[in-house]
Design goal:
single chain, mainly alpha, 3 domains, 52% helix, extended
């Protein structure tokens, strides 16, 4: 920041030798103050006015009688609050602003079958143009680990894995346990699922640990 405070005025002086004076307005002068502002007050998200300005615009849109601005805003705000409160008591089939259909819901029915894993039962539709490429070993491992750790049917095996890790390493921290889950659980589950002594009879679980 100290370097920017020193260099920006010099850069602007050089620009003034190239561009006409009509080019320079408040926006070109603003960078002089930005480094100092970032250095002294700190991160902008704790002090900027954009959320309040957006909310003020939301209120201004409610004005229908310009002779009674405050009254228009108050009445419209009361209507909005009352309608929002009442919407909590509507029938489940009634769509409201708070219960609107998600963007990826195409309105179709989800095909379900017995034994379908929970992580694959979410409705949705593709976005953008389809592309095909092979995953790297790292990407494949990350995808497989994500599916395993976020599947309800695998949580019982996650618990077994964590218990084994804690038993083998009593002083291990929670952060280290999370690291082992990310790096070692997929390989551990592959061995565990195919061991006949562990009684993993669900074929979808066996296919899942193979990445099928």
């Amino acid at each position: 920041m100290n370097r920017l405070i020193e260099e920006i005025p010099v850069i602007l002086c050089k620009l003034e030798r190239i561009f006409p004076s009509a080019f320079f307005d408040s926006m070109e002068h603003l960078p002089i103050h930005l480094p100092y502002e970032a250095k002294i007050p700190g991160p902008v998200q704790y002090r900027w006015m954009y959320p309040f300005e957006r909310f003020l615009r939301h209120l201004k849109k409610k004005v229908t009688n310009k002779a009674k601005v405050e009254g228009s805003i108050c009445n419209a705000y009361l209507v909005e609050e009352a309608s929002t409160f009442c919407s909590y008591y509507f029938e489940p089939h009634v769509n409201t602003k708070l219960r609107k259909v998600p963007r990826n819901d195409d309105g179709g029915k989800v095909e379900t079958s017995e034994g379908l894993l929970s992580i694959f039962s979410f409705p949705g539709r593709p976005y953008g143009q389809a592309k095909s490429r092979r995953l790297t070993d790292k990407e494949y491992h990350q995808a497989q680990t994500y599916v395993l750790l976020n599947c309800d049917g695998v949580q019982q095996y996650v618990k077994i894995f964590v218990e084994e890790v804690v038993e083998n390493t009593p002083n291990i921290t929670d952060t280290q346990v999370d690291d082992k889950l990310e790096n070692e659980f997929a390989n551990w589950f592959k061995i565990y699922a195919w061991d006949p002594n562990n009684n993993v009879t669900n074929q979808m679980m066996k296919d899942l640990q193979m990445g099928l």
